[in-house]
Amino acid sequence: MQSRPRQRQGQERVITGNRQTSWAFADAYVAEDDALHWARERAREAGLRSVTPGTGAALGLLAATVDAKAVAEIGTGCGVSGIHLLHGMRPDGVLTTVDPEPEHQQFARQAFRAAGFASNRARFIPGRALDVLPRLADAGYDLVFCDGDRLEYLDYLDESLRLLRPGGLVAFEGVFGAGRTVGSGPQPTEVLRLRELLRAVRESQELVPSLLPVGDGLLCAVKR
């Protein structure tokens, strides 16, 4: 009777190990070019988090899937996610990217140029997202990518629903909260806000959601 639990534990270890290996393989499946490596290095030097290669590849795929011509990005960083989005967008598409740090956006400009994108492919707007987003056009965007202040994600959701056309897509980066979103015990406010976001997206009648296990969790939803 005691051997069966040990066998299951062994099987669980194998399954867990296989999952971790598979996730690592998936995350590195799409190779990144020199421009992306350069942008990642600038982000590391600035102490900024960047989307993983797997998350970036997913963003490019999502942009291509909706044939994105207009994309809004909350959180420019040093341009890693922006390059992936631009790779998936239409050749005449424009990325509108918002960040409170103009210095970071200058790095992103250089990265976009190094990746071969013309200057008119991106519109850089410095400022707080919640100050900038209300100025953007209703139903004017095919995709909204949110990678800003986690405490403001629910507000970003409200703005995204206004900004997106029917059939458009919103994506939120980092919703696993480094594993804390599903953790037990007391959690910081940021994690509680992420849980609220997950519930709101899942229960919304306006959205068709999916939670992708790439990077630190990519929450996606299509606007009906």
Automatic annotation (TrEMBL):
This protein's UniProt keywords: Methyltransferase, S-adenosyl-L-methionine, Transferase
Gene Ontology BP terms: methylation
Domain of life (superkingdom): Bacteria
PANTHER family linked: O-METHYLTRANSFERASE RV1220C-RELATED, O-METHYLTRANSFERASE-RELATED
Record GO terms (molecular function): O-methyltransferase activity; S-adenosylmethionine-dependent methyltransferase activity
Protein name (record): O-methyltransferase
Cross-referenced CDD domains: AdoMet_MTases
